[in-house]
Amino acid sequence: MLSVEGIDLHYGAAKALKEVSVTAQVGRVTCVLGRNGVGKTSLLRAVTGQHPISKGKILWNGEDISRLKPHDRARKGIATVPQGREIFPLLSVKENLETGYAPLPRKDRIVPEEVFALFPVLKTMMHRRGGDLSGGQQQQLAIGRAMVMRPSLLVLDEPTEGIQPSIIKDIGRAITYLRDKGTMAIVLVEQYFEFARDLADDYVVMDRGEVVLSGEGATMEEADVRRHLTV
């Protein structure tokens, strides 16, 4: 289980997170909702080690990982699908997927067939450059790259942003499949309410760097959540 306990995060003198606490359990999707600029991405950067926290702690399976570097967290099974996808545009689809090998022992350095079962278009484009793919195909590639790492914690930052509806459905099915495998915890940052509502086992809503609502997905009140999503 992931347990984020009362963390603060600063960018210089600006405080981006204030006493934020979030949990994520294996076999469940925790959705983090909120409008732009409220600290959602900062929370994910704290979890993955891309920005240091200034207070609190982050536990993964009971171990304090607050000071670990991103590559050390990756070796502990923490994978991220960043906002904007961040695939390598000049590398082929095959090479992009193989970048997920980095934290794995040599014997595990193969692309799981489930990547192609979930995203069959990738198998037909293995030798095409990542930069030549559509935005939706790049998002599928970014999720596939994270799956190559065999993560036990998968962190996704707005995977539906700028994506066509048909591929949003594919991404939703993929997240459901990965959740139902029961081998990983999933943290999903979203602004698209319907997508989050359909996937959330647990949810938190952020505003101005703080958690203002939280609970089980089944208890999510649409009006209360939407109040914190509209500008």
Strand and helix map with partners:
Layout lengths: L1 E10 L2 E11 L4 E5 L6 H9 L6 E6 L2 E2 L5 H6 L2 E4 L11 H6 L14 H6 L1 H5 L10 H14 L4 E5 L7 H17 L3 E6 L2 H7 L2 E6 L2 E7 L5 H6 L4
Parallel strand pairs: 3-8, 3-9, 6-7, 7-8
Antiparallel strand pairs: 1-2, 1-4, 4-5, 9-10
In brief:
This protein is an alpha/beta fold and 231 residues long.
Description of the molecule:
With 231 residues, the protein is an alpha/beta fold. The protein has a single domain, classed as P-loop containing nucleotide triphosphate hydrolases (Rossmann fold, 3-Layer(aba) Sandwich). The chain has helices at 40-48, 70-75, 93-98, 113-118, 120-124, 135-148, 165-181, 193-199, 222-227, and strands at 2-11, 14-24, 29-33, 55-60, 63-64, 78-81, 153-157, 185-190, 202-207, 210-216. The strands form two sheets. The chain has a six-stranded mixed β-sheet, sandwiched between helices. Strands 2-1-4-5 form a four-stranded antiparallel β-sheet, covered by helices on one side. Strand 4 (55-60) and strand 5 (63-64) form a beta hairpin. The longest helix has 17 residues, at 165-181. The chain is globular and about 45 Å long. The two termini are 33 Å apart. The model has no long low-confidence stretch (mean pLDDT 95).
Key descriptive features of the protein:
Rossmann fold, alpha/beta, 231 residues, four-stranded antiparallel β-sheet, globular, 9 helices
CATH superfamily: P-loop containing nucleotide triphosphate hydrolases
CATH topology: Rossmann fold
Number of separate domains: 1
User: Roughly what percent helix?
Assistant: 25-40%
Q: Rough shape?
A: globular
Q: Could you tell me the number of beta strands?
A: 10
Tell me the β content: 25-35%
Distance between the termini: 33 Å
